[in-house]
Amino acid sequence: MNPKRRPIIAGNWKMNKTTVEACELVRKIAYAVINTKDRDVVVAPPFTAIPGIIDVIRDTNIGLAAQNMHWEDKGAFTGEISAEMLLDLGCKYVIIGHSERRQYFGETDGTVNKKIRQALNKGLLPIVCVGELLSEREAGKANEVIERQVMGAFKGVTAAEMQKIVIAYEPVWAIGTGKTATPDQANEIHAFIRGKVKAAYNADVAEGLRIQYGGSVTPDNVSQLMAKPDIDGALVGGASLKPESFAALVNFK
Q: Helix H segments across 33-108?
């Protein structure tokens, strides 16, 4: 973690929690992190829970994210939700390009790029996910995959817009598996991403860019991960569904 970059810890709740359950969870989280001032705290509940949660987190230090959005303003896109709808609900962030969206719902580098540009155009802050499969890592293609995803995601995005973006590096083989990249492995990819952003933009943009790690982050390993110079936060899955675990992650030393 570079002290010049503000850490960001985000909880991706995925398809979990009814509205009542979600409000109870976020109420407990808010109480546990009430004194946390030096880092950003974000929760990403399912769409259905957002209207209830916004009332609970009002006047707290918790930011609200959506888990996905469409790249068009409106139209015949059954089951989708637009940036303006998310803003209307009180969202500040939106997760884009999560590996589960890529794997199960046909998300591509091209659609990720369109969603990023729409989010930025509408005033949402994108949390952009990249990451390689186990087969790709074992074949020595991790850097190649990450470079393709990063360059594809940010095509046409300006240097000024890049300052509003968070990247989440999530090795797909470590999501929900209990496996995790070692702190050195994670930092190596984070540094690689930062280098590619520097080459595409400039040193100031690269040094200001916050890059989270995601993939079986727990209270037991978060401090070791966050001690690395290019890791600026975490995008947390399962551990974010337990208030005591998520609070421990947020309040890492």
A: 50-57, 83-89, 99-105
Q: What's the distance, CA 148 to chain centroid?
A: 18
To the question of domain 8-250 being in CATH 3.30.70.240, the answer is no
Residue indicated by tokens 């974000």: 42
Mean pLDDT over 162-167 rounds to: 97
Residues that are catalytic: 98, 170
Instruction: Give the pLDDT of residue 173.
Output: 82
Task: Dig out the tokens for 233 from the structure.
Answer: 């936060």
Q: Where are the domains of the chain?
A: 8-250
Cβ neighbours for 80, distance < 8 A, ≥ 6 positions apart: 69, 70
Report yes or no: 166 and 8 within 8 Å, Cβ to Cβ: yes
Q: In whole angstroms, how large is the CA radius of gyration of the chain?
A: 17
Does the pTM surpass 0.90? The reply is yes
Average pLDDT over residues 119-138: 95
Q: Is the dihedral of CA 191, 201, 131, 90 positive or negative?
A: positive
Identify the sign of the CA torsion 15, 16, 22, 26. negative
d(CA 235, CA 212): 6
